[in-house]
Design brief:
Blueprint: E1 2-6, H1 10-22, E2 26-30, H2 33-39, E3 45-48, H3 57-65, E4 72-76, H4 81-89, E5 94-97, H5 102-118, E6 126-129, E7 132-135, E8 140-143, E9 146-147, H6 152-162, E10 169-170, H7 171-179, H8 187-201, E11 207-210, E12 214-217
Parallel strand pairs: 1-2, 1-3, 3-4, 4-5
Antiparallel strand pairs: 6-7, 7-8, 8-9, 10-12, 11-12
Helix pairs in contact: 2-3, 6-8
The chain binds calcium ion (CA).
């Protein structure tokens, strides 16, 4: 299996590359977060360090998840609860705190890969609620067949909700996914975007507010 290793520490990267190779994988190593975003299509799994020199690993994960369901195992020195929770919320399949035992890492990689292949049936990428249709791949939204033009952020908020249609999504999670680390500044901004979305869609019943928690797309 092809494993992309994003790790700026040469010692750690060398040891992991060797271990992966010995266990029959095909490791490739990059040092920077930007390299992950340009190379993620050429791998089967990503091992992601969070302390990267250019972009924070959680930001890399957030950007990656907007375009890819690639299995991701976070491997980091950051064991604080907030980082772990954010990593998992942003779509990491597993989260390991360094120093990690090699046998455990390899077992976790196998477990994540197994889950990814058994649930390989792709989720429907066009979501409907009433006559509102959100095409997550084409990034198109139609209401009653007519296209509605949304800004990038408006679409991101709607897509984050539509991808989990019928499920309540917390404000915290929406802000993590759409704004990433800047979320502290944007609590008000989320309200503004939702107000604009509701106005543009003209279907207030499609976006439900869950008081004290967040929002839901569809029933
Ligand atoms: Ca690092």
């Amino acid at each position: 299996m092809r494993v992309l290793l994003a790790e700026d520490d040469d010692g750690v990267a060398g040891a992991l590359t060797e271990a992966l190779y010995e266990h029959g994988h095909l490791p490739a190593r990059v040092r920077r977060g930007e390299d992950v975003l340009t190379r993620h299509r050429q791998t089967d799994l990503l091992l992601l360090d969070l302390g990267l020199p250019d972009v924070d690993g959680l930001e890399v994960l957030r950007k990656l998840r907007a375009v890819s369901g690639l299995p991701v195992v976070v491997l980091t020195a950051r064991g604080d609860e907030r980082s772990v929770v954010r990593g998992l919320r942003l779509g990491a399949d597993d989260y390991l705190v360094k120093p990690v035992r090699l046998a455990e890492l390899l077992a976790r990689i196998e477990a994540v890969t197994r889950r990814a292949t058994t649930s390989a049936a792709p989720a429907p990428r066009t979501v409907r609620a009433g006559d509102v249709e959100v095409d997550l791949d084409a990034r198109r939204v139609t209401v009653g067949g007519a296209e509605v033009r949304l800004t990038t952020k408006e679409f991101a908020v709607l897509a984050a909700l539509a991808a989990r249609a019928g499920t309540a999504v917390s404000r915290q999670q929406l802000m993590d996914e759409v704004w990433g680390d800047a979320y502290l500044a944007v609590s008000r901004s989320l309200d503004v975007h939702l107000t604009q979305l509701r106005a543009k869609l003209g279907r207030p019943e499609v976006l439900t507010t869950i008081r004290g928690f967040g929002y839901r797309f569809g029933d």
